[in-house]
Amino acid sequence: MCIRDRSGTHNYEPSGSGDTYRFHLLQPLARGESCTLRLIGQRVHDVDPDDPPDGLGHNVAWSFSTAPPVAQTVRLNEIDADTPGSDIAEFIELYDGGTGATPLDGLFVVLLSLIHISRPPAPGRY
């Protein structure tokens, strides 16, 4: 069972055999979710005739988190590119609409080196 911190129990479907099993969640986890999986040792049994032990013997739990939510309001506000001369203060300024402390996890900036641009893009077409 997967216990989500925001929305309770999350159902799964097990598959596999032998010593390898997989748990497929029936609903996707949301970004920023924490999930704890628990195996109840008394409910886990082996199939070989060599007993004891016949089961896990103890409970096992582990947790993980999904990637944090991607910011939806971050915009490029100002770019100071590599201008001719001895300019060494290039930067890209991001603006989050005034929210402040917006996580940037999941976002990336791709920088390209363009040798020649015949004309700049029209306003609003960047």
Write the layout of secondary structure elements.
Layout: E1 2-4, E2 8-10, E3 12-17, E4 20-25, E5 34-39, E6 60-65, E7 75-80, E8 91-95
Antiparallel strand pairs: 1-2, 1-5, 3-4, 5-6, 7-8
Number of domains: 2
Main structural class: mainly beta
Shape: elongated
Q: What portion of residues belong to β-strands?
A: 25-35%
Helix-strand pattern, N to C?
A: EEEEEEEE
Walk me through the structure.
This protein has a 4-stranded antiparallel beta sheet with strand order 2-1-5-6, with no helix packed on it. It folds into 2 domains: 2-65, no CATH class; 70-126, no CATH class. It has strands spanning 2-4, 8-10, 12-17, 20-25, 34-39, 60-65, 75-80, 91-95. It starts with a strand and ends in a 31-residue tail after the last strand. With 126 residues, the chain is mainly beta. The protein is built from no helices and 8 strands. Strand 1 and strand 2 form a beta hairpin. The radius of gyration is 26 Å and the shape is elongated. 0% of the residues lie in helices and 33% in strands. The mean pLDDT is 78.
